[in-house]
Amino acid sequence: MFKKILIANRGEIACRIMRTVRRMGIKTVAVYSEADRGAAHVGLADEAVCIGPAASAESYLNVKAIIAAIRATGADGVHPGYGFLSENAAFARRLKREGVTFIGPTPKAIEAMGDKIESKRLAARAGVSTVPGHDGAVDDARQAVAIARRVGYPVMLKASAGGGGKGMRVASDDAEVREGYAAARREAKASFGDDRLLIEKFVEEPRHIEIQVLADSHGNTVHLGERECSIQRRHQKVIEEAPSPFLDEATRQAMGQQAVALARAVGYTSAGTVEFIVDAKRNFYFLEMNTRLQVEHPVTECVTGLDLVEEMIRIAAGERLRFVQEDVRRDGWAIEARVYAEDPSRGFLPSIGRLSRYRPPQEGDGIRIDAGVVEGGEISMYYDPMIAKLIASGRDRSEAIQRLGAALDIFAIDGVANNLAFLAALVRNDRFCAGHLTTGFIAEEFPDGFDPEKAEVGDFLAIVAVAGAVHWAYQSRAASIPGQVAGHERSVGNSWVVRLRGVSHRLQIESADGGWDMTVDGRAVALRSDWQIGDRQFRAIVDGVSAGVFGIVRRGIAYRLGHAGCLADVFVLSPRAAELVAYMPEKRQADTSHVVVSPMPGLLVSVAVVEGQVVKAGEPLAVIEAMKMENILRAGRDGTIGVLHVKPGESLRVDQPILEYELSV
């Protein structure tokens, strides 16, 4: 067994691997960039080594620096996590020359499966069902159009060496192929150093379902069942679950057998995932094999009771699998939600900044948190925007969804835009709860993005009642503070006006055993809760029925309440203050229709226009790269380009002006 393992990664996966490594009694080594000097994974490790500047190419992808860290610390094993060098065969070979074990598959297997073109050919030879398409690299946009026409629209342009949604575009016509080809190549080159693309038929109404496999070096290979990963945005997974609500047992077994056959055909060892696309009739086709630990591996761990990181370590140490296929049992249901630093109200654009508040729900009772951040930490533009993974498990899918929704309601993050409220709304969506999923789910159910401050208030009565109770508690505490000036003591009223989304509600309140009795707009309401001042979650029982959990943040004179994907600033005012609010002038918004601003922090890759150029609505204006993803800014209206404020290669802050143009009448 290993004595010391270096984790060649960062963030939540580095922290997650360290937990298992330390539990096994093995010493840990962290590596970090200058930007990550104060990161959580650095503090968790027994030793930590700085490997370079913030940019990944100069740190986490810097093989020379990582090898130096291995030599300096005497590590005899390296776990790469996912991303970065996890599927880099040259890195695995270099470790072998150094006499250090790569905790993952062999370089040969990485190469065979890491190239989507070659892996598809190999899968077909192994008897695995594959997606129709062109199995060779595409040389230029003209050839891409010809192939797409032959395959039949819609098609998927996909980076041969890629993964994680990078270097992928769906195209429905010739124009989209030409534009998508150029963008996907640039993205693939930036992310993987390889700009080769392949083209496949895009399966309509598709579900993304993958099979987890484990294989040792003694010829033993098993599968651990499936994960449903259909809830995606821009081919990036958002929600994953195990098992799938769609598969029947026959399809499950057939997919598992094909995954095992492919692993054996390539001589695979370690943990790996065979990904399939499944159509509405449960026909399934091989997509790719990820030769590494997957981001969503916790849901498999929850339903099987296995620790996949431990199994990888034992396999790399030469041990046999401790079980056979018949021993694998899957119990209950688990769902994972990826918490991202992104703004759903602005098209899910990434956000950066400092986590001024980071308070996840407590682990236990079916809740698991995999995170690599701490309060006060920074979300950087250099790395993936994922903050944490929230995993909920239960006896069945319904219980897992209920626990996940409640946990999302009380998860508190400030300092960066995030998708917590969006996730909370998503897992309560009727179609999601029914299990009717496809990879187009988010685009179909949330076509205009999602703004929690404009989301429908599902239970206004409960929100008004909770805000009133919280205000009563704070006012009562203030009135009890000793030393108040005689004759000017603070008094606590019981008649207020609660303003929610611009609508006023009359509220009267009195304390009662275990809560409060009140009237809201003349309706009697009995609110009961064990909430105390300072708690950020309010478990409400309204008229004897649970109304769920409300997240609470006190913001000046308002209370920000979060529940079921809705965020609302609620004001509890005296009747006189409510009268005066009507006289407050509304702040006018500045006219910015003639200015194109950066919707996110990032790097300006290119500008497609020059001063004086006439543009039509929809034409591309500029390309911004943020967190390894390219984003095209387009003209919202017809006009003529005026002043260009920035040049390609410059770093942009959010809302920084890029160009101005005169609008056509």
Write the layout of secondary structure elements.
Blueprint: E1 4-7, H1 11-23, E2 27-33, H2 40-44, E3 47-52, H3 63-73, E4 77-79, H4 89-97, E5 101-102, H5 107-114, H6 116-125, E6 133-134, H7 141-151, E7 155-159, E8 168-171, H8 174-192, E9 197-201, E10 207-215, E11 221-233, E12 236-242, H9 249-265, E13 270-278, E14 284-290, H10 297-304, H11 308-316, E15 333-340, E16 342-343, E17 349-350, E18 353-354, E19 357-359, E20 367-371, E21 378-379, E22 386-394, H12 397-410, E23 412-414, H13 420-426, H14 430-433, H15 441-445, H16 460-479, E24 495-500, E25 503-512, E26 515-520, E27 523-528, E28 537-542, E29 545-555, E30 558-563, E31 566-573, H17 575-581, E32 595-597, E33 602-607, E34 614-615, E35 620-626, E36 629-634, E37 639-644, E38 651-652, E39 657-663
Parallel strand pairs: 1-2, 1-4, 2-3, 4-5
Antiparallel strand pairs: 6-9, 7-8, 7-9, 10-11, 10-13, 11-12, 12-15, 13-14, 15-22, 16-17, 18-21, 19-23, 20-22, 24-25, 24-31, 25-26, 26-27, 27-28, 28-29, 29-30, 30-31, 32-39, 33-35, 33-38, 34-37, 35-36, 37-39
Describe it.
With 665 residues, this protein is α+β, with helices and mostly antiparallel strands. The protein folds into five domains: 4-103, 3-Layer(aba) Sandwich (Rossmann fold); 132-201, Dna Ligase, domain 1, CATH 3.30.1490.20; 207-445, D-amino Acid Aminotransferase, Chain A, domain 1; 460-479 and 492-581, Glycoprotein, Type 4 Pilin; 595-663, RNA polymerase II/Efflux pump adaptor protein, barrel-sandwich hybrid domain (OB fold (Dihydrolipoamide Acetyltransferase, E2P)). The strands form nine sheets. It has an eight-stranded antiparallel β-sheet with strand order 14-13-10-11-12-15-22-20. The longest helix has 20 residues, at 460-479. The termini are far apart. The mean pLDDT is 92.
